[in-house]
Design brief:
With 419 residues, this protein is an alpha+beta fold. The chain contains 14 helices and eleven strands. α3 packs across α6 and α4 crosses α6.
Length: 419
């Protein structure tokens, strides 16, 4: 049976219908405005950013491969930042001529090995209009000029910073290991004791055992630290037998004995990692070398210990050695700058275990204890930027840091609101 609407209900509907119609007439324009591409998505200091601009920004970011995991949210954030940058630049008198805009577009397109016209054509196919590209260039160029004018005088790029940027420490080698070491003397008077110790070291399987043994029997400077070398070491710079054994060895493996000048060496693998390669043919090592007469005597070992406490930088090395050993001729202390592959294996292995500014005194040649001090590792050869280019890169990196803080302050002070 069909239900019938009572007369009272029909009367109520006749009264409500005009209200519903009127409400719909009010709501529909608001809904249409909210969905309009040219309505405001957000206001930045009363300056509207439209839905269309957000869509364009999202397409542009995706076009250059920077869309992120949430392209729409990232586009909104970047649009707000661009608007803040433009507002601040214009407030302080920043302007761009048409030629400057063209130059900026050409420079950006050249990074993708395109002309500006070719990039604009590809953008058009992706639904990105020219004004979006122009706005991106304006915001970027004006902001860089503003940050440069505001903070450039505060930035001083030193020669030491350039040296560090050109050093190997900034580029990780291909396969690196963390190791601990034990050095046993090969002097005749220790022969019987060393013969008894070697089989015991070869049976070690744990870091604790190796550490305890290093403290008890190692003559290396790392003995007090349980033989630990707290620096990642490039396998290619180690003796071939050690490098090959450690390339695929289980963590904890002990390799040795390895004969080095004046000592027998044992190494334990603590960790291994793979990373970006630096050809050893492009690594130049600068270091000091001094032979101390008397080999591994108590006097020489005490002298080395004093040197470690007194020498803070490589320039102090010659004076300190010659002052404490006046019988040495000046020519005995030499500074060398050699490509890594040109250095003899024993010296190369010692230097590889050092950080810049550290001293090694493990090698014995004849009656001399060889003291080495690492100054720096520098990348050299074809493809390495010159110092002027490195200086500019460091300056730009510093300016980016200042600019980030500047932008964060602008954002904190801005009135950013939804419509």
């Amino acid at each position: 049976m069909k239900q019938r609407i009572a007369p009272m209900q029909r009367a109520s509907l006749r009264l409500i219908a005009p209200l519903i119609t009127g409400l719909a007439l009010l709501i529909l324009p608001i809904m249409a405005q909210a969905q309009s591409p040219f309505s405001a998505a957000v206001y930045v200091n009363d300056d509207a950013i439209t839905n269309y601009e957000i869509t364009q920004k999202r397409r542009f970011l995706e076009f250059i491969g920077a869309g992120g995991s949430d392209p729409q949210e990232l586009a909104l954030e970047r649009a707000i930042e661009d608007r803040l940058q433009l507002q601040e630049a214009e407030r302080l008198g920043g302007r761009m001529t048409p030629d400057q805009i063209t130059d900026g577009m050409n420079e950006f397109a050249a990074r993708a090995q395109l002309t500006a016209d070719e990039m604009l054509a590809q953008m058009q196919q992706a639904g990105i209009d020219r004004e979006t590209f122009v706005s991106f260039i304006q915001a970027g160029v004006l902001w860089r000029e503003l940050v440069q004018a505001t903070y450039g005088a505060q930035i001083n790029i030193t020669e030491t910073q350039i040296d560090q940027a050109l050093s190997v420490e900034g580029v990780q080698p291909s396969t690196e290991v963390l190791i601990s070491e034990i050095f046993l003397p090969t002097d005749a008077q220790y022969a019987d004791a060393v013969a008894r110790i070697v089989p015991q070291l070869q049976r070690i399987r744990s870091e604790t055992e190796f550490s305890n043994a290093a403290r008890q029997v190692s003559v290396a400077p790392t003995a007090a630290a349980g033989g630990r070398i707290d620096r990642w070491i490039n396998l290619s710079a180690m003796p071939e037998a050690v490098g090959n054994a450690m390339r695929d060895a289980a963590i904890g493996r002990v390799v040795g004995p390895i004969e080095v000048p004046g000592a027998l060496a044992f190494f334990q693998l603590r960790a291994r990692r793979d990373s970006r390669s630096v050809p050893v043919s492009q690594v130049e090592i600068t270091y000091y070398r001094a032979p101390l007469p008397g080999g591994r005597s108590d006097a020489n070992m005490a002298l080395v210990q004093r040197m470690r406490g007194q020498i803070d930088q490589c320039s102090d090395f010659p004076g300190t050695v010659l002052r404490d050993l006046p019988e040495l001729p000046d020519s005995a202390v030499v500074q060398l700058a050699q490509i890594q592959t040109e250095i003899d294996a024993a010296t190369r292995s010692e230097l590889e275990r050092l950080n810049p500014g550290q001293i090694s005194a493990n090698l014995v040649e004849g009656d001399n204890l060889v003291v080495l001090m690492l100054c720096r590792r520098t990348i050299t050869g074809e493809g390495v930027p010159d110092r002027a280019a490195v200086r500019m890169a460091l300056l730009n990196r510093a300016l980016e840091g200042y600019g980030m803080v500047y932008l964060q302050r602008l954002r904190a002070e801005a009135d950013i609101r939804q419509p």
